[in-house]
Each structure stands twice: as structure tokens, then as C-alpha cells.
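Reopening: C-alpha cells for the S-adenosylmethionine complex, inputs below.
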Amino acid sequence: MMLSITTVKLFGFQKRRNFHSLAKRFSFTGQSPSEPQPQVSLDKDCIGFLPWLETIAGGKITNTLSIGKSIYGRSLFASKVIHAGDCILKVPFNAQITPDALPPDMRVPLTNEVGNIGKLAAVLMIEKKRGQNSRWVPYISRLPQSAEMHSMIFWSEDELNMIRCSAVHKETVKQKAQIEKEFSLVAQAFKQHCPRVIERPALEDFMYAYALVGSRAWETSKGISLIPFADFMNHDGHSSSIVMSDEDKQLSEVIADRNYSPGDEVLISYGKFSNATLMLDFGFTLPYNIHDEVQIQMDVPNDDPLCNMKLGLLQTHHTRSVKDISIFHSSSDTFVIKEVKSAKGKGKGFPQSLRAFSRVLCCTIPQELNDLSKEAAQNDGRLARLPFKDRSRELEAHKIILSHINRLIENHSACIKEMEASKYHVVSQRFAVRRQMARDLLSGELRVLRSAAEWLNHYCTTLFSAP
Ligand SMILES: C[S@@+](CC[C@H](N)C(=O)[O-])C[C@H]1O[C@@H](n2cnc3c(N)ncnc32)[C@H](O)[C@@H]1O
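Re-run output (same inputs, fresh job):
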């Protein structure tokens, strides 16, 4: 997952928001009550950075932001009063790094099998190896080191074990395998086409570059772009400021969504990401993430006598809507549930597609399946979307999901309990950060699962009370 950019020709003024607490993580130096405008403590390592980038850009990038340090690494802070609606930074496309920078000979062998992140990671490796000869050295030297990063591809077996009950565990394994596959192609291309720059490509270096790109590049018309300076901005899930791209003016820009005083940390939204996505790709979590979700995998058992008929029917009718598919590469029996806001049916409900799947699952004779198929044809074509007329069958269908969800609740609770039991062991700072991430992930998923169980329980108990 990359950060997604919004392409704009004309953009509307974004809604004013209340000041959010994340914007106050910064500690000021030398601030006294008589000073109404606190001074921003600049990141001394970045003093020459903006003038350098402005030279490349051929113009001003910001009038109101400076680079400072937050508890989450580098960040941008208001150096002057900023009003909601102000444009706070503009980075022209010519000051961005894209896969177009790959040596032409390397582009061809990498075309199909290496994704945009892998291609840009290869560019970053080349620039890094060029050292002081790289045009981008002032930028590259200010990127975080791999030891400071917590993207899940860097997690050890023990660390990954903490989240074994979550679907993101499997995704991490898949992502690592994909990176290794892409690395073998990139390494081959390096050996053939740039042996003098990269003599002995190392998987470790590729993984580091891949994690940097995955956590700080935006999808753009070039496929993907690293946008220096804009990528020093940290994420706030409540912010409505995003990085936007203006193809006519050939630049990326950010508009403030709220007022800021000098010294405030200025945050943007990377997207509506769950903690699973944030930890997999960005290496952090939010303590309470409203976008948390749980991936549910349900199978038609192989020993079900109607297995083939059910699979055929499900395939023909596509039980899932596209909205059910998340970051996870889903198979035909994968569903995503979000927090069900109210057990009484208000707010976001329980996914219809999963309920439909379980109705199909509990059919025991071909006639029932044929009836579902006929019913779909008479309505909007979607299978099993209406409750069974026979309420005990409807109950049975929902009990299937409920027992699956209850099992996941048990697994999540056991993982959390195990983690809490090991809380007082002496651990490294790195492990402590990752354990907190694991806790945020699992508690968020547990919240989602419990809301789903509550909804299902309510549905099951009221099924027979309706007239
Ligand atoms: C686009 S970069 C932002 C700049 C970064 N802090 C730096 O030092 O260069 C994204 C990275 O910043 C950190 N980050 C951003 N927002 C965060 C947040 N709300 N909580 C924790 N870490 C965050 C994570 O390490 C993430 O991978």
C-alpha cells in the first residue's frame, strides 16, 4: 500500500476542523508565558535542506513550515500562523523522485514483474550507492535508518508471533516473499546493467529501500513519487489535509485543514488506513483507529456433499461487493468487517455478503440452492440477500458466522493475554514499540469482532420476536 494522492485541477476548500490533540506533540524550547508566539525548535540537521530543495525546484516551497523533530521522527511544524485553507507547501514534479530515474537499460527487464514500489526502491538503492555524487544526497541522508523503522517486514519471528491470530500475519509473510522475488529480478538487472554502481546487491538494502518507499511515497501520474519535504509530514487519522497533485501546474501541494499557531506540528492524513495497513506498510499504529477492520475467511468445507454446487453458485453470483475487499489480497471466501456501530442496526451494518455466504453454507439439499438462485434472478441478481423465510434456517446461518467470530475473539483474547503476561520481561526499546503496535492492532480487531458478535447476537435473539 502506498500513500494515495488526489489529483486536482480545481480543489474546493476543505472543511474546517477542530484542533486535534496530535498536533500538540511538539515540545518548545525557551517558551515563556510572556511570549505569545513560541519558537520552533528546528532540526539542526535539516538547516540547509529547504534552500537546497528550493534550488532544485526553482522556487519557494513553503513560507510557513519548518522541519523539526517529533516523537515520531522528523516532522513539519508551523513557523508562522497558518489559517485553514492556506496552501502550506508546493513541491514541483521536477523536485520529486520517480521510477523514471531508473537507467533506461534497467526499465525493460523490470517492466512487468516488479511493482512501482520495487522500481522506486531500485532507484533509491542506486542513488544511495552513488553517495556524495548523488543529486539527492541531502534528501537521502535525512531519511530514517532501518533500525528506526518498524514496518512489519523487519519484524522477527518472535515479534510476528505476537500477532499470529491476525490476518496481517499472513500478509506480512506474503509481502516478504514478494519482496524477495522482486529483489532477485532487480539484483539480476543491477548485475547486467549497472555493475559498477551496485556490485553486490543485498536483499537487506532492497528491503530497507522498499520499506522507505512503501512508507513515504505517493501514487502519482508517474506511478509513484517520493516527494521530498512533503514526506516529512506525519499522519493524523482525523486530518482532512492530504497531498494533492496538480497536473496543470506540475506540482504537489497541501492545503491546511485547520488553523495552526507557530510551533504546532502540522499533520496530514495518509488515507483511511486500518492499523493492520499502518503497521504492515508504515511501521506504526494508532492507539484507537476508527478504520480498523478484520478479515474473515470462510470456506465451504470440502466434505460438504453440496460443495461443488455451492462454489459454482457463489462464483456465478459473486457474493462479495467490491467494497468488502480491503488491502488484503482476497480469495473468493474472504470478507472484511468493520466496527458495527450499533447492535440495534444503526450505523454501519454487518456485511450483507457474509450473511449471504452463510445462508448458502447452511443449505443441505440442492432444492434450497436452486431456490436461492431463482430468488436472486427475480430480484437484483445477488444471491441469498433476503432472509430465509424459515426463521430457524436464518438462525442457523447466522450462528455459523457467530461461532466463527467467537473463535476469532477467543484467539485474539489469548494473544493479548499472552502479551500482557510477558509485559514485565526486560525487553529492548524496539521490542517494546512493536509490542505496543501489536497491542493496538489486536485490541482494535477485538473491538471490531465484539461489535460484530453483539450485532449477530442481537439479530439472532430478535429473529423470533418479530411478528
Ligand atoms: C511519510 S514519513 C513521515 C516523516 C517521518 N517521521 C520521518 O522521520 O521522516 C512516515 C513515517 O513517519 C512515522 N509516522 C508518521 N505518522 C505517525 C504517527 N501518527 N504515529 C507514529 N509514527 C508516525 C512512521 O515511521 C512512518 O513510517
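The longest helix spans residues 429-462. The two ends are 48 Å apart (CA to CA). Marking as resolved unless the reporter disagrees.
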